[in-house]
Amino acid sequence: MTLLVCWVGIDTHGPSSLYMAADSRISWKAPAHFDYGRKVFAFTKWPDVLGYCGDVLFPSIALNQIVDLADAGLLFASDFSPKQKFQAIVDKLNDLFREYPALHAGLEENSLSVVHGSRDTTNNKNFFSHTIKWSKKQGWHGEECPMPAASGVLFALGSGAADFEENYSRYESGPTKGTSRAVFHCFCDTLAKSTEPTIGGAPQLVGIIRKPHTSATTFGVIHKGRRTFLGAHVDNLRHFATVEWRNANFELCCGTTMQKRPTAQAQPDALRRL
Q1: Does residue 116 contact residue 84 with C-beta atoms inside 8 Å?
Q2: I want to staple 186 with a disulfide (CB 3.0 to 4.6 A). Which of 66, 107, 171, 235 is the partner?
Q3: What is the band of 99 on the pLDDT scale with cuts at 50, 70, 90?
Q4: pLDDT of amino acid 173
Q5: Closest residue by Cα to residue 90 from 121, 127, 63
Q6: CB 129 within 8 A of CB 18
Q7: Count of domains observed in the chain
Q8: Residue 263 lies in a domain
Q9: What is this structure's pTM?
Q10: Residue 180: which domain range?
């Protein structure tokens, strides 16, 4: 399963950012697992992000195709609102799902949740988040999450959600309450301390900001002293300056030194369990 969390940052002008974080573990019958599975996706041409939890095979295939279709200009019109983009994603998911051999791929036993986060391409203050879920009992169903008045969680899903929500109650009354970084602090702390065997690996992070004419971003994450990108270790690669890096404190970091940038705001997590 997964821990998938989507949250929004709010300032005095309204929604300013939307982020999605997930763990990287794919698990089978205990103790078999793989800690390098991609679970979140950032569109390179659009201010949109996707994440999933539950069944792995179908969304890992379908969401890659959906992102590539959109970035190639085939899925969205240039003036689509976030809701219209969401509907286009749902329509394509349904097209692919109709051809998917569910009975032979485990979906009869598993559930599946896909979360879409978006920003309007014409009104950069208009953010949107919606989930669509499938289960054997209910089929496809979903819900839109209205934007809150203060920074906070929109969705917490997967086998690690109960641990996250219990832990987040500490952060909601802590020194960073009402901030976007508090959610990521809690996410990283939960991932590090959870005893749930189906979550693990490095955090992976994507996001959208309010700045006009920007697309979504895939962030590198400094995790346990190593550079990771979408769950994969990348210390043996190169050109780290091409990626925006964050650490468990949600601080902007230098990809070369892996240290907080000198000009970046310090964002310590006083509630992290050591």
Answers
A1: no
A2: 171
A3: confident
A4: 96
A5: 63
A6: yes
A7: 1
A8: no
A9: 0.95
A10: 4-253
